[in-house]
From TrEMBL, chain A:
CDD domains: PBP2_TMBP_like. This is Sugar ABC transporter substrate-binding protein. It holds the Pfam family SBP_bac_1. InterPro entries: Bact_solute-bd_prot1, SBP.
Length: 449, 298
């Protein structure tokens, strides 16, 4: 079992995209050694001017990618420092260091965290620093996710596309078709619960704040939007209500396993075949093989069911390269960020020889990712093809500036879902938290309900 | 008076390491927290223009004191302390007395066995227990389930029992060792005199031994109460393991931690919450030492 009780879903997500591996420390030490060697050695002698950057990340393969960057650049040398994953303390480390004036020049921020960093004034505006042609190489939706208030704040690396993992063998055994719509999924869930004692089609699923948000986004909800210089909160819109009633209904009918998402208990159920699907995102494809090594060939991958049967996806994770406001040389930092998200020599180590399934958003880089992913666990299925199909229905999403904090409250409340509490109560608490904190920070905020 | 100066100098030299650490590790952080508690990060509009540090006076204190979650965190530790502390002390005294009777066998082994859990770091202990509480993996729940008892140890009903159990498991051995050591110091002739006068084991325990170790009990009571105020790792682990009622701001310490490290720039509120807790702890300690001292004198 790779998971422990102590890791939350968000931690797991962060790790699954970019897991810290044993040896990564050693590699970062190597990279540092290499950096020093390059910086002090012959490469810089011709120009004399070498810009030094500091890059903080927890993402797997970063040390090797930085090493490759340093080898191919004479004028910029990057010092890589490994930090704990974002929600595991990495984000606090970054913002605390920036408070103290010794933060990194470049760091990774997930889409949910980026607005918080921008709001705290920690991120440099790079709108004018990335030229249009370069930007065209990235998926438009991802660029939009990194754009807040009409300004570009970060270079996107990947986006978590909602994806369904299902037990092919057990679907066949119990006579279940792969559901295309949420209606199909609900019917299958009720059928399994009725006919197979002790087995459920899925767990509560939306007990994880990020998963709930992705599900509501998929249905078209906009919890956060802006109008002029005012934030509008729409936690009670039609789409949210639809998603809320749907999952509440399944939970009330006891059609879902109540094992908490990302818990040891849930993994135990899934490894015993007591849960037949996992409704997660693209990054999980690689992680699935780590979590259930005995299940090779048993899991299938399919687009997330949708309301109308057409491809649709919310944003379930994904990260960016953000440049610190204090960065001495923003141009160099941007060059590093674009290189890290697009160059083959950066993508290959980040994909970790097939152990990452990040849906990379730079189009050229995605081809590299696609090639390096080993799909033998899934019987050589075209997994990236499925991601691409789902990504064609990626919904436009805006994350609010207090997401990390709001998700804490939402997560606290969601623990009660399926155990007496309702989804509606949890969502209302999240909205109250968002409103309270945003207005507490002096922002203009209005609830639309 | 050169001799007097030498003595004072020696005293200062010996006491200075303590004061140095006290200033660096206690007074300075409290001072900095006080400073932080008077400021807040503020921005405007959509908030993408960055923030500025603003002097807000006592606003942070008003804010946390009007936050239901902060107030209920005190209720949680109060319930925990009212139930947990007497239970801990009572059980510890009971076991220490048992160990001290003439009939006890394998005393050293039992002492060691009881003390070992105290050596386990709190976080690890909490993880072990939380594992045993988690429905799909716990052998305890499996056995109970096999016998027809369906219990949900992470559910609302078991919040306090589950938490107190972890703390008891860790703390019993420590208290027992302290009480047992004090019991060893009880003059044997007093006990022998009592026995000569016809007192049985129970009377000896209750009327001779317990009164004679009450200063040790009072000391550990203060420790246990302060530990309850500072409750942190155990509820944090339970919260992470999806214990339904344990939120990320369930105790005052957790509240401050969450405000400082997972919320956006709420160091001011976190500092205010921490200072209020420190004030309360200082106040309680003063009350206890002031009014419990006659009783404490053994």
């Amino acid at each position: 079992m790779t998971d422990t009780n102590s890791s939350t879903g968000a931690e797991r997500r962060a790790r699954s995209r970019a897991a810290l591996r044993t040896g990564a420390l050693a590699l970062s030490a190597l990279a540092l050694a290499a950096t020093t060697a390059c910086g002090g050695g012959g490469t810089s002698s011709e120009s004399g001017e070498v810009t030094e950057l500091t890059y903080w990340s927890w993402t797997k393969g970063s040390a090797e990618a930085v090493e490759a960057f340093n080898k191919s650049h004479d004028d910029i040398q990057v010092n890589f420092e490994e930090i704990p994953s974002g929600v595991d303390g990495g984000y606090s480390k970054i913002s605390d260091a920036m408070k103290a004036g010794n933060g990194p020049d470049v760091f990774n921020a997930e889409y949910v965290a980026l607005p918080s960093f921008v709001a705290a004034g920690n991120v440099a505006d790079i709108t004018e620093k990335v030229d249009e042609d370069t930007l065209k190489g990235y998926d438009e939706q991802a660029v939009e996710l990194a754009t807040l208030g009409d300004k570009l704040w970060a270079v996107p690396y990947d986006v978590g596309v909602q994806t369904m993992f299902y037990r092919k063998d057990l679907f066949q055994k119990y006579g279940i078709e792969v559901p295309k719509t949420w209606d199909d999924f609900a019917a299958a869930a009720r059928k399994v619960a009725k006919e197979q004692p002790g087995v459920k089609l899925a767990n509560l699923t939306v007990d994880d704040p990020a998963n709930l948000e992705a599900m509501t986004q998929q249905a078209g909800a906009q919890w956060f939007s802006t109008s002029g210089d005012t934030w509008k909160l729409g936690f009670n819109d039609e789409a949210t209500q639809k998603v809320e009633k749907y999952w509440q209904g399944l939970a009330d009918d006891k059609a879902l396993s109540t094992a908490a998402s990302w818990s040891t208990g849930f993994n135990a159920e899934a490894s015993k075949g007591k849960v037949l699907t996992m409704l997660l995102a693209s990054w999980q494809a690689a992680y699935q093989a780590d979590t259930f090594p005995d299940h090779s060939g048993k899991w299938g991958v399919a687009p997330m069911p949708s309301w109308d049967g057409q491809p649709a996806s919310g944003v379930f994770g994904g990260s960016t390269y953000a440049v610190s406001k204090e960065a001495a040389d923003v141009d160099a930092a941007v060059e590093f960020s674009t290189w890290m998200t697009s160059n083959e020599d950066a993508i290959t180590p980040r994909m970790g020889d097939g152990t990452s399934s990040a849906y990379v958003v730079n189009k050229d880089a995605r081809e590299v990712a696609k090639k390096s992913f080993k799909a033998d666990y899934y019987g050589d299925l075209d997994v990236y093809g499925i991601f691409e199909e789902s990504a064609s229905g990626l919904q436009p999403v805006t994350f609010g500036p207090t997401m990390l904090s709001m998700n804490k409250t939402l997560g606290d409340e969601l623990k009660k879902f399926g155990h007496g509490g309702t989804l509606a109560e949890a969502i209302a608490a999240a909205e109250a938290s968002a409103q309270r904190e945003m207005s507490g920070q002096g922002l203009n905020v209005e609830a639309q309900d | 008076m050169p001799g007097g100066w030498r003595r004072t100098g020696a005293a200062l030299a010996l006491i200075s390491p303590f004061f140095l650490l006290f200033v660096v590790a206690t007074l300075a952080p409290i001072g900095y927290a006080t400073y932080l508690s008077l400021f807040a990060e503020r921005s405007s509009g959509l908030g993408f223009g960055g923030t500025e540090q603003v002097f807000v006076g006592l606003d942070n204190f008003k804010q946390v004191l009007s936050d239901d979650r902060y107030l209920s965190s005190y209720l949680h530790i109060a319930i925990f302390a009212v139930v947990g502390v007497p239970l801990m002390l009572g059980l510890s005294v009971f076991v220490a007395l048992l160990l001290d009777t003439a009939y006890a066998r394998a005393k050293r082994f039992l002492q060691l066995g009881l003390f070992i859990p105290h050596l386990v770091p709190g976080v690890i202990a909490a993880m072990i227990w939380v594992y045993l509480y988690t429905p799909q993996v716990s052998p305890i729940i499996k056995v109970l389930g096999g016998m027809g008892f369906e219990i949900d140890l992470l559910g609302h009903t078991f919040t306090y029992p589950a938490l107190i159990n972890i703390v008891l498991w860790m703390g019993l051995g420590y208290n027992i060792i302290i009480y047992y050591a004090s019991l060893q110091a009880v003059p044997r002739e007093v006990i022998e005199a009592a026995i000569m006068d016809g007192a049985g084991e129970f009377r000896v325990a209750w009327h001779i031994k317990v009164p004679l170790i009450r200063s040790a009990v009072a000391l550990t009571a203060i420790f246990a109460a302060i530990a309850a105020l500072q409750l942190f790792a155990e509820p944090l682990m339970m919260a992470k393991a999806s214990a339904r009622s344990v939120t990320s701001d369930w105790t005052p310490n957790l509240y401050a931690y969450t405000a400082a490290f997972t919320k956006s720039g709420q160091f001011g509120a976190a500092a205010a919450a921490s200072l209020l807790l420190a004030l309360l702890a200082a106040g309680l300690s003063w009350v206890v030492t002031r009014f419990a001292s006659p009783w404490e004198k053994a």
